[in-house]
Amino acid sequence: MGSRITGTERVFRLGPQPTLTLRERLILDGLWSGKSTNQIAEQLGLSLNSIKAVRHRLLRKYQASNAAQLVRAALAHGDLTVV
């Protein structure tokens, strides 16, 4: 049975652990650090459309509908850590 994450608006179950590419991990780290999509694109030397496409793929992988849910799910899966 999957773990539960409680948020202010709903409770959802974690799906299986998603496998992340290096690019997905870099973009997830950028979102976690509070950077905008434009800042991440500039930092990684990628187009804005590339970052948006990967961000959309991350939302699907984590079954999230926005960046806040994405970060919460990634934290719950252990893909991000609080330092």
Model description:
- The relative contact order is 0.18.
- This protein has a two-stranded antiparallel sheet with strand order 1-2.
- It has 83 residues and is mainly alpha-helical.
- A hairpin with a 4-residue loop joins β1 (4-6) and β2.
- The model has no long low-confidence stretch (mean pLDDT 85).
- α1 packs across α2 (37-44), α1 packs across α3 (48-61) and α2 packs across α3 (48-61).
- The protein has four helices and two strands; from the N terminus they run ββαααα.
- It is 53% helix and 7% strand.
- The N and C termini lie far apart (28 Å).
- The protein has a domain at 20-77: Winged helix-like DNA-binding domain superfamily/Winged helix DNA-binding domain (Arc Repressor Mutant, subunit A), CATH 1.10.10.10.
In summary, what is this structure?
This protein is mainly alpha-helical and 83 residues long.
